[in-house]
Write a structure and sequence with these properties.
This protein is of the alpha/beta class. It contains eleven helices and eight strands.
């Protein structure tokens, strides 16, 4: 089965487990390899400044790995006002692949990403950083709440895509709010497509809620999934888990 929606596996949580000891296991590059072999379309990392998940050396080692997978994509996400662009510049300076930078407005000590950029408040400070990222040859995606009125502004500052922050949809899955939340995402995605933006999505998507999301929300080019996928892999293994998520997308 095939799908127009790509699956990018976020391997941060593999690194989180590894970082609790000094043995180098589980291996982040081994996890990425197994996911790619099972059909994942790309790998995502979020190298936070405190190094609690993937660390700078992981970013470079994964980029070296992706050289052997020229038809797969490498997505690095993070706050462009922290360490993201420095890491991206070094990846490119080493001649390594980098396909997408996802700008996320999280603070340095934030538990997890929990909101998107807002306009016009963030417009002028984001505009030059988006341009800098694009000079590296990377597509720029902005992490955004599902607000249709914000999509034109994201396009106006130069973004190539938006990544819709999907935790509110996931939280509403078993509640009466589910149809209303799904409609929010449908409308936001359509607004993004209407102004020429690509649409990504991520945060708390899982095997239960993913199929409905991509069926109803138009034009989703990529989903980035980490926490739920890695949790499933603890029980099912990487290969079976990736195949299960690909089946949801198909």
């Amino acid at each position: 089965m095939s799908s127009p929606t790509a699956l990018s596996v976020n391997v941060n949580k593999v690194a989180l487990v590894r970082n609790t000891r000094h043995l180098g296991i589980p291996s982040v590059t081994r996890a990425a390899t197994l996911c790619l072999e099972a059909g994942a379309h790309g790998i995502t990392v979020h190298p936070r400044p405190d190094g609690r998940h993937v660390r700078t050396h992981d970013v470079f080692e994964l980029a070296e790995l992706l050289q052997a997978w020229p038809n797969r994509e490498y997505n690095i996400e993070g706050n462009p006002f922290h360490n993201l662009l420095d890491v991206a510049r070094e990846v490119k300076a080493r001649g390594l692949p980098l396909h997408q930078l996802t700008f996320v407005p999280d603070s340095e000590g934030q538990f997890t990403s929990d909101h998107g950029w807002t306009f016009p408040a963030d417009a002028e400070r984001l505009r030059p950083l988006i341009a800098q990222a694009q000079t590296l040859g990377a597509r720029v995606s902005l992490f955004m709440d599902p607000e249709p009125a914000q999509m034109a502004a994201a396009k106006a500052v130069g973004a190539d895509r938006v990544e819709l922050y999907t935790e509110p949809y996931a939280a509403a899955w078993n509640t009466p709010e589910r149809p209303a939340q799904l409609e929010r995402y449908r409308a936001a995605a359509q607004a993004a497509l209407d102004v020429g933006l690509g649409v990504n999505a991520g945060h708390d998507l899982n095997r239960d809620n993913l199929a409905e999301f991509v069926r109803v929300v138009p034009g989703v080019a990529e989903v980035s999934i980490g926490h739920a996928l890695i949790a499933d892999a603890l029980e099912l293994g990487y290969a079976e888990t990736v195949r299960a998520y690909l089946a949801c997308l198909a």
